[in-house]
Recover the amino acids of this structure.
């Protein structure tokens, strides 16, 4: 945690992504749907680049055994997840502010954007942490992690894009509300079931 | 206190050990001997529940395993950014037992390094810290994997002292390929 390498990776990735998208769309007027889609792509890749490392690093540096010996799986999962949630929300807010600033896109429903962003980042952190935890002990971690992540993240990204595009002025309000509720439910479900799934694989 | 019944472990189609049975009571100190690769460390980890067993059963001392059993191993890693005292605080917080930082550092003669990050410690100092972490919860069963490796003469005396104290509290299993460490035990198991 003290090395803060995950946070630095996430922030750097966000800055580079925002710069690249802004540069590529300099003379374009972007629709809310396109902006929402690109924002979620950036959020997804920023999270995938840094968050699963939290468990892989324990295995790679050989400290996982110490944790297994002295820690309860639930306590370990919650500790790691809370750190990832905090990192994800900080990176997500920074990414969103930079992105909307550079693309000059106005926000029509600010509360919806805030809810979708925070719930989306918490969901991302929960799902990606869990994938990292499950895959951390496998010999082909990268492949396994990606294989688990795809079905978990597809509905999340769909909900996230739906909510953010309504917040940016594209689509019906009811669609945005449904997406926000879906994201909150996703975050709760991931963080509530995560410790139990993690406990089942932690010592096996 | 600790019962191992027909324990077996298979890796990639090869049995590392099989049909191992023994029982340890308070005061028993078992040393596991064998050549490199005989499976001593794997046996310790299997008994401690850190590696899945292929067959057989292990009965550990009753209670929360975070407090009743402890493993100190040469290859166990530490967090390079955390200091010596922070390691003891972390393991105490995770176990839910008193940290006893001053007492343990005095015991393993590491008070002078309490604020040093473990990345700056020598191999012997790391071994002492791992010993302190292992005895922090006064475990009923203590497992030591190559305990003398990296330690100086004073360190070997410390190991003798810890094994004596452990025998009064519960049982001890030492995995080693150093024949001199037979002195730590009153029971022997040879892996072939």
């Amino acid at each position: 945690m003290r090395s803060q390498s995950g946070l630095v990776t996430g922030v750097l990735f966000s800055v580079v992504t925002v710069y690249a998208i802004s540069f590529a769309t300099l003379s374009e007027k972007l629709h809310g749907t396109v902006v929402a889609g690109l924002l979620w792509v950036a959020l997804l890749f920023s999270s995938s680049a840094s968050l699963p490392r939290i468990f892989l690093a324990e295995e790679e540096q050989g400290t996982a055994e110490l944790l297994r010996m002295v820690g309860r799986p639930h306590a370990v999962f919650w500790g790691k997840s809370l750190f990832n949630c905090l990192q994800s929300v900080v990176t997500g807010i920074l990414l969103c502010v930079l992105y909307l600033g550079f693309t000059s896109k106005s926000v029509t429903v600010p509360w919806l954007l805030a809810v979708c962003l925070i719930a989306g980042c918490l969901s991302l952190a929960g799902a990606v942490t869990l994938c990292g935890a499950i895959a951390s002990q496998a010999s082909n971690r990268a492949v396994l992690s990606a294989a688990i992540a795809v079905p978990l993240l597809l509905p999340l990204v769909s909900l996230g894009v739906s909510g953010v595009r309504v917040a940016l002025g594209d689509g019906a309000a009811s669609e945005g509300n449904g997406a926000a509720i879906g994201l909150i439910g996703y975050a709760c479900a991931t963080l509530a079931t995560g410790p139990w799934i993690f406990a089942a694989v932690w010592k096996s | 206190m600790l019962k191992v019944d027909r324990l077996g472990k298979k890796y990639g189609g090869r049995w590392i050990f099989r049909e191992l049975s023994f029982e340890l009571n308070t005061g028993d100190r078992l040393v596991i001997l064998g050549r490199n690769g005989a499976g001593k460390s794997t046996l310790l980890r299997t008994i401690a529940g850190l590696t899945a067993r292929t067959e057989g059963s292990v009965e550990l001392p009753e209670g929360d395993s975070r407090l009743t059993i402890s493993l100190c191993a040469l290859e166990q890693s530490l967090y390079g950014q955390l200091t010596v005292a922070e390691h003891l605080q972390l393991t105490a917080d995770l176990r839910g037992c008193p940290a006893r930082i001053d007492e343990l550092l005095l015991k393993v003669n590491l008070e002078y390094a309490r604020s040093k990050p473990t990345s700056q410690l020598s191999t012997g100092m790391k071994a002492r810290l791992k010993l302190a972490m292992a005895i922090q919860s006064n475990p009923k069963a203590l497992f030591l994997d190559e305990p003398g490796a990296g330690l100086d003469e004073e360190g070997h005396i410390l190991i003798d002292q810890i094994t004596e104290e452990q025998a009064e509290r519960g049982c001890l299993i030492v995995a080693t390929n150093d024949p001199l460490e037979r002195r730590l035990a009153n029971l022997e198991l040879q892996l072939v």
